[in-house]
Amino acid sequence: MIDKEKTLTTGYLSKCGYFKANHKLMGSTGWTSSRSKDLGIDITVIMQENNERVILNYYDFNLNSVKQIIYLESKPSNLDKGLVWFFVCPYASKCCRNLIFVCNRFMHRSNLINPMYSTQAESKYWRKLFQLQPNIPTTQKVLDEPKKKYYKKYYKGEMTKRYKKHISTLVKWRNNREERSQLLMKQY
């Protein structure tokens, strides 16, 4: 299951400030499960012009030291605000924003044989049921909006965006409740 594997993303590296022009930055990150560290990696990002790369140093599950070099490629943002960075997968030579840790190496998902997300392994019945199940806290927040002190349903004779969202959430909630009950009744 792809979504249960450890992933390294350009978004994470960018958010942590690794992509600064003509700089060499070092840091570390890791993944934990059940309060024990699964994998810890040391990250070195070297941003030399036309030779940008990420060097990952870590120990695989056999406790062998691994040094993996992954080159970076940039493309102009579709918003015309800077550059968007991509990894160049060392195994598939594809540009990607996410690398998955499989077989003790970070690689693009196209290298996997029959990769699936966990929702794809679920039956059609369960996928439909989860699709109809609303996000309770978000829905409750939207449904409680009219109770606020300065909430307005109309402004200059037109419905406000907040009120339209409230109405659509209410309709969706009621429709989904009927569909959910019908779906559950089919099961038994």
What's this entry about, in short?
By secondary structure, the protein is of the alpha+beta class.
Write a concise keyword list for the protein shown above:
6-stranded antiparallel β-sheet, 188 residues, 29% helix, 5 helices, 36% strand, 3-stranded antiparallel β-sheet, alpha+beta
How would you characterize the overall build of this protein?
By secondary structure, the protein is of the alpha+beta class. It is built from 5 helices and 11 strands; from the N terminus they run E-H-E-E-E-E-E-E-E-E-H-H-H-E-E-H. The protein has helices at 10-15, 118-121, 124-132, 136-143, 161-187, and strands at 7-9, 24-33, 36-48, 51-59, 65-76, 83-88, 95-96, 98-102, 105-107, 154-155, 158-159. The strands form 3 sheets. It has a 6-stranded antiparallel beta sheet with strand order 2-3-4-5-6-7. Strands 1-8-9 form a 3-stranded antiparallel beta sheet. Strand 10 (154-155) and strand 11 form a beta hairpin. The longest helix has 27 residues, at 161-187. It starts with 6 loop residues before the first strand and ends with a helix.
